[in-house]
Amino acid sequence: MSVAGFIRDILPLLWSGIISGCLYGVGALGLVMVFKSSRVVNFSHGNLACLGAFVVYGFSSGSLLSLSWGSAVALALGIAAAIAAMSYALIAPIVFKSDLASTIATLGIGLILQGAVQLIFGADIVNLDLPVPRFSFSIGAIRISAYDLAVLAVTLAIVGGLFAIIERTKLGVAFRAVSTNPFACEVCGLNLRSVHLFSWFAGAVLGLVAALLIVPTTFLSSTTVPSFMLQAFTAAVVGGFSSLPGAALGGILVGIAMNLFSFYVAPEFMNTFLLGVILLTLNFFPNGLLERAIGGRV
What we know:
two-stranded antiparallel ribbon, mainly alpha, 3% strand
């Protein structure tokens, strides 16, 4: 392969990897928010996001209601937040007793949510588009679409808003304190459950936004969004489950790595590749890449 040919291929691969990595990063942020506050790896994250995406489809396509896309998203966010609260209420009695038991409980909640999707919306594959203008332009070898710009804008807005809340509000201070030393927070009278609930709400919103952005590139079924969360989970492992900046960075790294592997090796072994990335990261960087680089600060 010539140098010119390599550059012609690599630049679009890097660009599309960054775009898809933004989505993995947003999904990973939801996982990390829950883990940092309650030490629970939330395996129902993808199933709740999938249910939220189907609610948007049902409310905007006419199968349940005929609302505008924005109204459907607003209702779906409310429903996702309510289900997140109920999910946390189910595992709250065991959160302070066993991290492992709480994590296993989220597997059960995920299966219940997947069953609810199939019961209400069926097992058929549906399309759910993102209402963005249809245009694109090229900069050198990179082709930039309106969808790419929408993903970047939404990701930057969400990440900026999330970090503003965590760094500038009392709720964010409480979240950081609970993440660092929950025992001391409880001794000081801080209500740990309210902080947990905030992180579960945030995780549900982040998961739904990531699902709505990723679904237009593929299709919506009861398994596509939960499968997508494998990439988000890998991003959280790479960046560190206790680092919010690490989750965002991990998403971009995973997106680029997946694109390069798919193009130069074999796309059919993508899940195997992701599991290999998880194993290597846990062996050499058990706390994630950024955790080691900056010392694990929130």
